Every structure is written in structure tokens, then in C-alpha cells.
Amino acid sequence: MDKVDAQILSLLESNSRLSYKEIGSIISMTGQAVGNRVNRLLDDGVIEAFTIKVNREGMGIRVKADVKMFMKTHDHKSFLKLIKAEPMITEAYKVASDACYHLKIETTSNQELDRITSKLQQYGNYSISILLNKIK
After folding, report:
1. Residue 129: beta bridge partners?
2. Mean pLDDT of the chain
3. Cα gap 126→65, rounded to integer Å
4. Cα 124 to Cα 106: distance, rounded to the nearest angstrom
5. What average pLDDT score do residues 36-64 get?
């Protein structure tokens, strides 16, 4: 990866809808040359996917919580199946800390959060922090 690849990545990160031609005009390359570089970055695994950033609040998401799970069961497969199936659990990490897992839950209401944490309770105890304002 060189300086030109880094420029392409930076432009795509800021706006993945830019055409190769538009990127090329910014960095003084042809659209075809940009496309070739992007394809190489995809093949090399540097670019994993093209995505969109959704305004979650615009979708009605009002409650965001960080949940630390302390497992009381050895049935982690059922727990993992539950968290993969629950769309309001937007992130899940197995961690090396006092907890076993960290989950990020985004819901439309406290009642919805309560519904999800009630499901989690069958697998262990949890501590929950409500996220108020994103700083960074």
C-alpha cells in the first residue's frame, strides 16, 4: 500500500459513494486506474466492504446501553445464538476482563431494553451503563 492507496481509502471512508472517476479527478488519476487500485485493495483484504452510516436516532433509537455480561452457565452457544439473533444488540465482544462479554444495545425505549436484558438474565448477571452523549 502506498500514498495513493491511502488517499483513495481516505476519500472512500469520507464518502463511499464517490465514483472512481471523481476520486481520480481529485488525486490526478484516471477512473480506471482508481478502479484497479480499489480492486487490488479488495483482493488484499484492505477494504472489507462498502457500507453506509445510518443515523440511528433518525430510526427512533433513543436508548443506548453498554452491558457487561457475567456468565453463570457454560452454555455459551445458546447465549451467542441469542445475541446474534437479537437485532437491538448491535455489537458483541468476548473480552478478557472481569466480565465475559461486552454488548452494545440500541433500542427505541427503556421497555425494549428491559425486554432484552430479561432474555440475557437467563445466562448470567449483567451490569448496564446507559450511554448519554457520544464524545468521539
Report:
1. 66
2. 93
3. 12
4. 20
5. 88
Q: Which residue has the higher pLDDT, 88 or 58?
A: 88
For cell 432474555, the residue is: 119
Q: Is residue 105 packed enough to be buried (19+ CB in 10 Å), middle (13-18) or exposed (0-12)?
A: buried
Burial of 81 (0-12, 13-18, 19+ CB in 10 A): exposed
Q: Which of 75, 81, 67 lies closest to 125, judged by CA?
A: 67
- Which percentage of the chain shows pLDDT scores above 90? 82
Residue 33 sits at the vertex; the CA angle it makes with 29 and 39, to the nearest 5 degrees, is 135
Which string of b and e fits 13-51 if b means at least 16 CB within 10 Å? Answer: eeeeebebeebbeeeebeeebbbebbeebeeeeebeeee
